[in-house]
Amino acid sequence: MAKNVMADLKRDHITKLLSKGMRIDGRKFDEPRPLTVEKDFVQSAEGSARVHLGDTDVVVGVKLMVGQPFGDTPNKGVLTTNAELKPLASEAFESGPPDQRSIEVARVIDRGIREGKAVDMEKLCIEPEKEVWIMFVDVHAIDYDGNLFDAGNIAAMAALKCAVVPAKRAKKGEDYPLPVSHVPISVTAVKIDGHILVDPTYDEEIVAEARLTVTSNEKGDLCAMQKGGSGSFTPDEVLKVVELSRKIGADIRSKI
Amino acid sequence: MGGTPLPDGIKLIDENGKRLDGRRPDELRPLKIEAGALKRANGSAYLEWGNNKVMAAVYGPRECHPRHMQDPTKALVQCHYNMASFSVDDRKRPGPDRRSQEISKITSEALTHVVFTEYFPKTSIDVYIEVLQANAGTRCAGLTAASVALADAGIPMRDLVASCAAGKIDDTVVLDLGKEEDNFGQADIPVGYIPRDDEIVLLQMDGDLTADQFKTGLNMAIEACKKIYDVQRDALKRKYTLPAGKTDEGGGVN
């Protein structure tokens, strides 16, 4: 009840500002929040990064373990992406096994990495059909002010870029850098009252009608998308988000 | 098993009485605390202690879930200790295990002692401890960070809880075990302590100690807690003291 009143008040405030061409934090509609990337944040991980996207704070750790390949990809490593939306990060998150929201975040980030062919998975094969590297990308939300999709994607890519395959520890030869061949970057926009806003804050997310995440690679080609929310986008709006994603994605890529 | 875990010829304490990382027996690892590290939580603290990295956040007092746990006379302090999957060498499966459940319980109990729970009947004060990088001593690091986070949340408390472990390696009682010392040592005694009232609010022990060794270890841990307490207070002072010449009014820039 109280929550609904707050959401209504916020919605009024946000939409009033939008009609004057302003966002609550003073950004332009197509302007993402300030980004900082700290690589190698966690020494116990094979690769890691802490990313601040505005007040959203995410830590990603990459771990690699020797395991069995899937039957249909006997000469490829295995990618597992997991997102932990911890109650530490927001009152909106609850303890317990991953819920639908964190599974969606994990799967959208996973799709970017997988379909964007970020990692050359064939180079993670140790012995075809027998042994490959299992790569875990664990996304940990520490402080939540919206847009975990992009903060998580950026942190995951930064962590992959500095990851080292721990071959020596596993007695599989010498350590080597994780073979990262592409850097797919996701950019998320929301729609509020017909306006398209890039990199939404928490307040913008809760009043948004719909959300669209578009992941593109360094060539500007698209590798993953996800629409969320009960609202809709017109085809033109979708194309607009695609263009924004390619442009902003290139800028973000240069920072990690 | 591929031979002895600790390579031959390497001792946890060398002939000069120095430990693997060069510390003296009664020396703490470097400790840094930052109060108010997160925006969304009501209170928070980030702590780096040796190679441990721990974030603590406090939410509340707020409505108590589950409802049947509400206490009409006081607040419930509910601590949730969690290790990130990438915080250890072999990836930890996400989610609570028996060890973290136990740590959550004893940490909640230690903190309940210092919080004026009677001020907030029917509510819950939720304390989240997230271990991002683990290197022995995370329960002490978590408790130490959690007390700073509670104070940062403005929750009335009798005092801060400081926490540190003593242990035994190579038959010597030492302070604040590092990872190798924890793995190959002989005993571990985590202690949570309130300097002002000289009270112990957390105590565990495992391993093998004589009564005298225990006494030495306990005293060592208590003395260390007093130093840790100063670091906790400094962290809070840094956040809540205004720079000289500044007042808390106006102060807006543009």
Brief synopsis:
The complex is a heterodimer of chains A (256) and B (254). By secondary structure, chain A is of the alpha+beta class.
- Quote the CATH topology of chain B: Ribosomal Protein S5, domain 2
CATH top level of chain A is Alpha Beta
Gap between N and C termini of chain B, in Å?
Answer: 66 Å
Name given to the CATH architecture of chain A? 2-Layer Sandwich
Number of H- or I-type helical stretches of chain B: 4
Cα shape of chain B = globular
Count of alpha/pi helices of chain A: 5
Q: What's the pLDDT, averaged over the residues of chain A?
A: 95
> How are the strands of the biggest sheet of chain B laid out side by side?
1-2-3-5-4
- In the CATH hierarchy, what is the superfamily of chain A? GHMP Kinase, N-terminal domain
Which stretches of chain A of 5+ consecutive residues score pLDDT under 50? none
Question: Could you walk me through the main structural features you see in this protein, from its secondary elements to its overall organization?
Answer:
The complex is a heterodimer of chains A (256) and B (254). Chain A has 256 residues and is α+β, with helices and mostly antiparallel strands. Chain A has a single domain, classed as GHMP Kinase, N-terminal domain (Ribosomal Protein S5, domain 2), CATH 3.30.230. Chain A contains five helices and twelve strands. In chain A, strands 1, 2, 3, 4, 5 and 6 form a six-stranded mixed sheet that branches. In chain A, strands 10-9-11-12 form a four-stranded antiparallel sheet. In chain A, strands 7-8 form a two-stranded antiparallel sheet. In chain A, strand 11 and strand 12 (222-228) form a beta hairpin. The longest helix of chain A is centred in the C-terminal third of the chain and has 19 residues, at 235-253. Chain B is of the alpha+beta class and 254 residues long. Chain B has one domain (31-240): GHMP Kinase, N-terminal domain (Ribosomal Protein S5, domain 2), CATH 3.30.230.70. Chain B contains four helices and ten strands. Chain B has a five-stranded mixed sheet. In chain B, strands 6, 7, 8, 9 and 10 form a five-stranded antiparallel sheet that branches. In chain B, helix 1 packs across helix 2 (138-152) and helix 2 (138-152) runs parallel beside helix 4. The longest helix of chain B has 30 residues, at 211-240. Chain B starts with 30 loop residues before the first strand and ends in a 14-residue tail after the last helix. Residues 250-254 of chain B have low confidence and may be disordered. Chain A binds chain B through residues 41-45, 48, 55, 57, 59, 61-63, 65, 82, 84, 86-91, 95, 97-98, 136, 138, 140, 142-145, 169, 202, and chain B through 38-41, 51, 53, 55-57, 59, 62, 80, 82, 84-91, 94-95, 126, 128, 130, 132-135.
